[in-house]
Amino acid sequence: MKKQLNSQSILLLAVNGLFVLAGALSGTFLNVYIWKVKPDFSLIAWFTFSQQLALGLVFWIAGKWVKERDKMIFLRLGIIVSGIFYLLVLWTGKHTVDYIWPLGLLFGTGSGLFWLAFNVVYFEVTDVETRDRFNGWVGILGSVIGIFGPWISGWLISIKHGEAGYRFIFTISLIVYGAGILLSFWLKKRKTGEPYNWLAPVHYLQKGSAWRQAAPASAAHGLREGVFSFLINLLIFISTSAEWRIGQYSLITSLVSLVSFWAVGKWLKIRTRYYGMLIGALLITAVILPLLWKVNYTTLMVMGVGTSLFLPLYLIPVISSVFDLIGNSPESVEGRVELIVLRELSITVGRLGGTLMFIAVYSMVPRMPTITWLMFALGATPVLSWLALRRLLKRGAKAA
Fold first, then answer.
1. Cβ–Cβ < 8 Å for 131, 323
2. Per DSSP, which regions of 257-393 are E strands?
3. How far apart are CA 315 and CA 313, in angstroms?
4. Does residue 287 carry a pLDDT above 90?
5. How far apart are CA 176 and CA 182, in angstroms?
6. Is the pLDDT reported for residue 396 higher than 70?
7. How much of the chain is in helix, strand and coil states, percent to nearest 5?
8. What is the C-alpha R_g of the chain?
9. What broad class describes the main subcellular location of this protein (predicted)?
10. Is 101 exposed, middle or buried (0-12, 13-18, 19+ CB in 10 A)?
11. Which of 48, 294, 297, 386 could form a disulfide with 230 if both were Cys (CB 3.0 to 4.6 A apart)?
12. Which DSSP string corresponds to 368-394?
């Protein structure tokens, strides 16, 4: 029987849920808002690139203060900076397209501060026996939020006719961020660690280290995530010209994801991660194939439902295995902040690489088939993650 989550884990899930909710309400439609002002794939890709760049740099630089000072300050600061971003979007309005780089860097900074602190605290409030369950609940919460958040936002934008609807949902997100800050005060202050080691990522990548497998796996995971994070909702809007369709898409796919995350979080065992991750990686690649024939709402829905159904099989093992690696010795536990930074830097390298690949290839051949073939190529990178992690997964299965 699996161990139950403790009260601090549940509270952290709630804070995470509010942060994700604010992003689901507004972030789902942010790129569409920019597209309606200036329909340019490269512009939105550079906006995403600036966010990813800031997020990676913040993880590396802020790691020192998160390790040596109160982590809760940075958790709250991440929420505050994210709120300031939406305040500026409200203020600049349609001129947001003129400030893509500074706004992207600001948004990435807020996300980086929050997720760095969250990941460190998440590691501290869970253990090897509760990590899969916690990740399952993170997926369930994300799915529930995905069911209602974008659907409500899409509906409000539709009935308020565009600009007024966007301003309304951006304001709601600010209120949700405020609620997240208040709730975070019930999280206990965490212990500070030893002095931060700036060059730890290099040290942990030395020959013979298991991080020689985990870091490339995380980078391969980022290759897919970097492009898919901004492209899917944009393609739905381009195909349908209706924001409410994005909400409908999110509602259906998140409902499927809710069931899938619950099932995988409940029944996936450490000893079955090896085959579970492989099956998941292959299937979330296969569901992209219909887009190679035609891009419309139906084929996008097929891909979305298929991804929601099979993604937990891939995602939970890849996250849990890396965090288990952080906890496998007293030395790595002490260096948990540096290792979480290494994990995020690896993912960021993948995200930046995937986004740059998209910008470069699409700039040379600006056609829809270019986008779909890029989606298939980058969508297959979870298989590379499994190849990089397979020895680690086998060792974990034997130990279990």
1. yes
2. none
3. 6
4. yes
5. 10
6. no
7. 85, 0, 15
8. 20
9. membrane
10. middle
11. 48
12. HHHHHHHHHHHHTHHHHHHHHHHHHHH
- How much is the pLDDT for 192? 66
Six-digit token string for 33: 């808002």
For 184-207, the pLDDT digits (tens) are 888 877 666 677 778 777 777 776
CB 102 within 8 A of CB 39: no
Residue type for position 193: G
CB 219 within 8 A of CB 349: yes
Phi, psi of 208 (to 5 degrees): 95, -15
pLDDT (0 to 100) of residue 141: 87
C-alpha 393/C-alpha 250 separation (Å) is: 32
Residue 355 confidence (pLDDT): 96
Instruction: Please count the other Cβ atoms lying within 10 Å of the Cβ belonging to residue 364.
Output: 8
- DSSP assigned state of 24: I
Give the global pTM.
0.85
245 versus 201: the higher-pLDDT residue is: 245
Out of 53-67, 258-272, 378-392, the most confident range is 378-392
- Residue pLDDT, tens place only, 11-52: 889 999 999 999 888 888 899 999 999 999 999 999 999 999
Q: 6 is written with which tokens?
A: 């403790």
Half-sphere exposure of 330 (CA within 13 A, CB side): 0
Spatial contact of 320 and 277, defined as CB atoms under 8 Å apart: no
Cα separation of 361 and 374, whole Å? Answer: 8
Residues 141-158 pLDDT 10s: 888 888 888 888 888 888
At 269, list the tokens: 């065992």
Q: Which long-range contacts (CB under 8 A, 24 or more apart) does 37-42 make?
A: 37/94, 37/96, 37/97, 38/97, 41/234, 41/362, 41/366, 41/371, 42/359, 42/362, 42/363
- Asked if 17 and 141 count as a contact pair (C-beta separation under 8 A), the reply is yes
d(CA 180, CA 205): 36
Query: Domains along the chain?
Result: 7-184+199-399 (1.20.1250.20)
User: Given this model, what pLDDT does residue 110 score?
Assistant: 94
